[in-house]
Design a protein that fits this description.
The protein is of the alpha+beta class and 202 residues long. The chain folds into two domains: 88 residues, P-loop containing nucleotide triphosphate hydrolases (Rossmann fold); 113 residues, no CATH class. The protein is built from six helices and six strands.
């Protein structure tokens, strides 16, 4: 009962079957169940993807409150970058199963170093990134995980690819303020002010 109360669910829910709960209630009950063992680390894999916009905000607020009050670390896995920015202290960006960039949230969103990160940020609608922000459109499709390309796994779709990218897989390098990036050309994609035309499909 204490856990249900902590996640904002009335006690009567404990006597209901799953199909009798709303989507938001089911998600809150799932969080309560995860907290029952008093974990220090919680994996939240797309915790709001099946919810409508109003419920997403409520669940994200709940997770943020639990992180603050329960000495809890949460690995928040999501495709919604607006939510990632809102709830995360640090962000890891993955491409084809590899972390290509890792930094504090503010660093990632203000100054992405990897071209894939820049393309993701350019696709966020309704942000305050400025009127000259470009939509970076990538060509091609993500690679088959069982048959990754040689060199940098992003190079077949990268708008700033160089010859070495096709041969050598970039190591993870640590830059300013611990900003990690795996790229031979970090920070070279002008994602805010360039007027270059990048054709293709995202």
């Amino acid at each position: 009962m204490e856990l249900l109360s902590r996640v904002g669910v009335p006690a009567r829910v404990a006597r209901l079957l799953p199909h009798e709960l709303s989507g938001g209630q089911r998600q809150r009950v799932a969080i309560a169940r995860a907290l029952a063992s008093e974990p220090r680390f919680l994996v939240a894999d797309e915790p709001v993807s099946a919810l409508d916009v109003s419920l997403r905000g409520q669940i994200v607020n709940l997770l943020a409150e639990l992180i603050s009050n329960c000495d809890l670390t949460v690995l928040f896995i999501a495709h919604d970058l607006a939510l990632v920015e809102r709830i995360s202290n640090r962000v890891a960006v993955m491409y084809a199963g590899k972390i290509v960039e890792l930094a504090a949230t503010g660093q990632i969103f203000r100054k992405p170093q990897h071209p894939y990160t820049a393309s993701l940020l350019s696709a966020i609608p309704g942000t305050d990134l400025g009127p000259r922000r470009n939509r970076i459109v990538l060509s091609g499709d993500p690679p088959n995980p069982a048959d990754l390309p040689r060199g940098c796994r992003f190079h077949p779709r990268c708008p700033i690819v160089q010859d070495r990218c096709e041969e050598d897989e970039p190591a993870s390098a640590i830059g300013e303020n611990g900003h990690q990036v795996s790229c031979h050309c970090p920070g070279e994609l002008d994602w805010r002010g360039s007027t270059a035309d990048m054709d293709g499909t995202f």
